[in-house]
Amino acid sequence: MNVRSSAKKSLGRASLPPSLRAEGNRRRILEAALRLFAAQGFHGSSMRELAAVAELQPSALYVHFPSKEQLLAELVRAGHEAHHDALRTALLEAGSDPAAQLTALVRVHVRMHASYPELAIVVNSEMAALSEELAAPGMALRRQAAALLRDVVDRGTAMGKFFPPDAYAAAAAIAAMGLRVPYWYSAETGMSIERLAEVHVELALRMLGAVRA
Amino acid sequence: MNVRSSAKKSLGRASLPPSLRAEGNRRRILEAALRLFAAQGFHGSSMRELAAVAELQPSALYVHFPSKEQLLAELVRAGHEAHHDALRTALLEAGSDPAAQLTALVRVHVRMHASYPELAIVVNSEMAALSEELAAPGMALRRQAAALLRDVVDRGTAMGKFFPPDAYAAAAAIAAMGLRVPYWYSAETGMSIERLAEVHVELALRMLGAVRA
DNA sequence: GTCTATACTATGATAGAC
DNA sequence: GTCTATCATAGTATAGAC
Q1: In a mutagenesis test of the A interface, which of B67, B191, B203 is the best target, namely the one with the most A β-carbons within 10 Å?
Q2: Domains delineated in chain A
């Protein structure tokens, strides 16, 4: 038997996005779930552990969420919505220049992943634990977010401003850089989130052969 | 309750690296575990499911592996070793030019992740399920692999051949591109693995401001 | 080395008092 | 809305026959 309980990871803080309105114990439960799911995975975390972290009895969880899966679904939904809203807003404010649009998308993409690392990890790693029905809204937002980036890359390429070796792969690679940020970046390295975002913007523009707007 | 059994994912093939010597039912079990762990995660897959996929009774699994965790550890070990060996060999054959070294590393990094996507997913996503002792060898190889890349980037930068906005972040971003490949790339898109690797080489060289060797 | 059968524990979720 | 107590099931792993 695995004696995971004796090798408990330090869980640290875990912050929910501002868009997620939740108070009192409902919020405590969501934060506890975020910490646990990010550190141990959905299937690797039990409702008993969750209750312990939230300082409640297991049965009290079910007053706020009908099931463990619905709890995960709420986190995943909030994460996808916060991410997609941030991307869409950034793009709207970026004007019509492809390089400015790409800059805006990469900046906010990286910023979100560095600011809410646990949420990003849960959203990206634990979606397979959701039923198709519960995963569908998140999957849709994910496809839309990917399309936002691909459209910017495609448009810039068509306009003769970007020169990617392959537009699809380049878009995937740009997204990938940001997606991995929560797994390695720590503010304690001395690099600020804003600087991290600017570095990624520069890398992305270089990948596309663009010049800074 | 989740009715996952009624929404079973199609699991597809799952190939072990050539370096992993295993035959007969031991191999079948490893392949079944690779498929299941990649699709549902370690904690999301039961020994009963595993036995069913391997077409054995659950008790037969324990003749070949002492525990579920040891089974995962074997996959994770094989994956890390294959990856690290490939990187090291590629670097040895690349000569002394930083751009050539980077090209070799990125090429093999991407090739491995595209050729063994399930293994890459398990290695990257399920290591938290291992005890510290069982995870340690893999973590060590991972650190060494990251150091190989960072050293090439640092040396090329010191030699005035690379011009990254930030060497550490650039190395992390280059690694990240490859790590995400298993999650989006499919040979059915029409792009070959070799072409995918070359595209990533080009992207990485651009990120560093280098010229092709 | 594989099978049938089963032990023991952990898990998600519920009942009912307060 | 939280608690104590508990149910029903699924989980890892083992025993013993062949």
Answers
A1: B203
A2: 9-207 (1.10.357.10)
